[in-house]
Amino acid sequence: MTSSTEHHIRQALEEHLGRDAVLTEVGDCWAYGYDNSRLQALPSAVVFPADVEQVRDVVRLCNASRIPLTARGRGTGTTGAAVPERHGIVLSTERLRAAPRIDPANRIAIVQPGVTNAELQQAAARHGFFWPPDPTSGAVCSIGGNLACNAAGPRAVKYGTPRENTLGLRAVTGDAQLLHTGVMTTKGVVGFDLTRLIIGSEGALAIITEATLKLTPLPEARQTLQLSYRDVASAARAVAAIMAQAVTPCALEFMDGAAIAMIRDYADPGLEEGIGALLMIEVDGRQACIADAVQSVIAAARVDGLVEVELAETPEKVAQLWKTRKSLSPALRNIAPKKINEDVVVPVSRIPELITGLERLAREHAITIVNFGHAGNGNIHTNLLVNPDDEAEMQRAAACLSGVFDLVLRLDGTLSGEHGIGLVKREFVAREIDPVTLEMMRRIKRQFDPNNILNPGKGLPTGSEQQRTTP
Fold first, then answer.
1. Residue 157 forms part of a structural domain
2. C-alpha pair distances (Å), 159 with each of 131, 165, 382, 415
3. Do residues 441 and 378 both lie within one domain?
4. How far apart are CA 166 and CA 195, in angstroms?
């Protein structure tokens, strides 16, 4: 933007939103130029619309002047999806946060994008319900961000992702059209499913201004247990066996031996030496059925290599068991604050092959790999512990990461389960998605956003990246 254009846009934004809803000072804008990746860019302005008409005004102004516009929730994403184009504008949703409207009779909540996941859960709980998506950053992340990245969390194994728990949306397209998708009912087949299309599109198709979410009744009972195994292969076989029987856990978390070792250096996990892998499991349901459900899960988990089963009988014991899992992220940040963090997914039955392949890649490239995550749906967080200041190590890590993605695709998996694509994984997308499908996605993008102002350059490959093919 030229300085005269910038001045004109700034004046127009202030006229539509008010001066207190527009930031232009460099020091103020930098705080909105990054997310939880290591990427950052300085926007020319940050705006805080308070209603859908103000969102539409901002989009209309940016569209007329071809100015890149990036919607932002709380910036907890890890792939650069909320990092703006340099000299573009950031639209923060933090003032779009009216109290959620809970409709218990129809099991729905109508929510604005700036409401946090925790605030929605608290509002729903007062009526005996919850919204299943529960990202690790749930205390601070926004519903708009959850929907934009289809961010799920541990409960997705039983209850699904935001796509399965959203009935409809209101949004503003890139050419400032007001869009209403979906229904207020759990059944509805009129027209194309634009709701699921927009969810997970990282703000590149439309800016969500309201969501109709499907609520689930809170369970009567929940039981937590921890199972330790001699090695990773045993734990992986147990995961497949657990998911092949009738009782679906509401959480099935996995940690490999390297993850456990990291925790030992940070906090005492209370585990004996020699444990090669750990499963953290929660089972929920009716009080009268919970004991039998737990026993069904344990029976399936009794594969060769099982060392110990520990049940939590009190809230204090539950907290103690989850302490191990919750200690992992701070331990990794302490040891490798600039690690490469991926969230690949494979079919549950192929987790043993994935883990074996990751161990081989770690040896071949001399890179420490720590694996943990949501094993119940094959979503493994693969962490490459690297030092960005070591050029040789970073070259090995790049080759290792490429090998990780090749391995995942050979196992019929996908490159991202919930973190999204953003900028970080963009160059690898064409390995998974064929050219015909990619071109269809680009056409859809042009239909929603003809001047390519909404979060441009995110999600889909550009230039030479399009030439990559699935190995």
1. yes
2. 9, 8, 23, 22
3. no
4. 8
